[in-house]
Amino acid sequence: MRAFLPVFVRRIDGLSRAVGRVTALVLPIMMLVIVANVVLRYGFGIGMIEFEELQWHLNALIVMGCLAYAYRDDSHVRVDVVHARLSARGKAWVELVGGVLLLLPFVIGIAYFAWDNFAYSLSIGERSPMPSGLPARFIIKFVLFAGFVLLGLQGLAAIGRSILTLCGRPLPPIDVKDNA
């Protein structure tokens, strides 16, 4: 376990970073879809349900793909009133307890139901209820499941990082500026 935990943490950190960076590249595409949708609708009076649904799907892809990335870089919403004043060991305890008691049960529950939702959608070949809407709605439902699985893995990596800190073998902090 001595060698496994640091390797596991670094691999999951790398996976979250890679998925987050690739997914963030979808942002300009989503912006173009939104601009095109607005111009067509308000400039030419042409409403396209395909663009409406595409922007929702792209937004979901971006959020779910970047969730673990934000958690990895500690860019998520946190109440820092107390956390900022804690020592490294105190922060590790908060991360460990919060991860085990709050994050993992939540992520496991959501992933469980997201998988059921995806499986059902796939089994019926779900598509948009709108005639001109997007086909294969199960794909975006899989993205929801995959995003929560990745968040759960990143949560395990954060717990592992906390355990290493509490055992006196902290990993070097993640260099966030390297992510730009």
Brief overview:
The chain has 180 residues and is mainly alpha-helical. It has one domain.
Helix and strand run:
HHHHHH
Give helix % range.
over 70%
Radius of gyration: 20 Å
Mean pLDDT: 91
Give start-end ranges of low-pLDDT stretches.
none
Give a quick account of the main beta sheet: strands, pairing sense, barrel closure: none
Oligomer: single chain
Number of separate structural domains: 1
Shape, per Cα inertia axes: elongated
Total of DSSP H or I helical runs spanning 4+ residues: 6
Portion of residues in beta strands equals under 5%
Q: Give the number of DSSP strands.
A: 0
Strand and helix layout:
Blueprint: H1 4-24, H2 27-44, H3 49-72, H4 80-83, H5 88-124, H6 138-166
Helix pairs in contact: 1-3, 1-6, 2-3, 3-6, 5-6
Question: Could you describe the 3D structure shown?
Answer:
The chain has helices at residues 4-24, 27-44, 49-72, 80-83, 88-124, 138-166. With 180 residues, the chain is mainly alpha-helical. The chain has one domain (4-179). The longest helix has 37 residues, at 88-124. The protein is elongated, with a radius of gyration of 20 Å.
Which short descriptors sum up this protein?
single chain; 74% helix; 180 residues; 0% strand; mainly alpha
